[in-house]
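Sequence design from tokenized structure. All designs in this work follow the same two-part layout: the structure record, then the generated sequence. An example of the structure record is given first.
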């Protein structure tokens, strides 16, 4: 049974294609471990004040600095999702935390062509967005001073 799950996961994570104006595009894992693979991440909890992006307003985010035992050369900001039926609270902004979970994602935004049929609203373009589904909060350390420069 484990072999069957491994084969199905590999086939799913290997290549995910979508149509983008007639051209096939590849979607790859932002954290590098693949979609749906249980991993541990560590980083600092951030928000839109740190990223200065309106798209992050009200979202739970982490600036990932470590995936598993691998330290990242450049931090990756990713949205955190928590199942509604489990009791996990995302720590406050500036807290360093470690989570177990998996990378997932989906499409968001509106394709420009849709505005030929519906009234225009300010939004982001249609794109794939990675998210991290938290299954467990492993550790949290006291708040650190949020960076002045998110870039």
């Amino acid at each position: 049974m484990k072999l069957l799950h491994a084969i199905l996961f590999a086939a799913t994570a290997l290549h995910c294609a979508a149509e983008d104006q007639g051209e096939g595009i590849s979607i790859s894992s932002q954290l590098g471990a693949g979609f749906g693979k249980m991993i541990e991440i560590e980083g600092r909890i951030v928000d839109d004040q740190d990223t200065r992006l309106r798209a992050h307003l009200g979202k739970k985010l982490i600036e990932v600095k470590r995936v598993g035992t691998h330290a990242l050369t450049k931090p990756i900001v990713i949205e955190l999702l928590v199942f509604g039926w489990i009791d996990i609270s995302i720590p406050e902004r500036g807290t360093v935390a470690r989570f177990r979970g998996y990378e997932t994602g989906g499409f968001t935004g509106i394709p420009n062509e849709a505005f030929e049929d519906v009234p225009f609203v300010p939004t982001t373009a249609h794109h794939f967005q990675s998210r991290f589904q938290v299954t467990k909060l492993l550790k949290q350390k006291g708040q650190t001073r949020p960076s002045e420069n998110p870039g």
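Residues 1-20 have pLDDT under 50 and may be disordered. We note this feature because it recurs in several other targets discussed in the main text.
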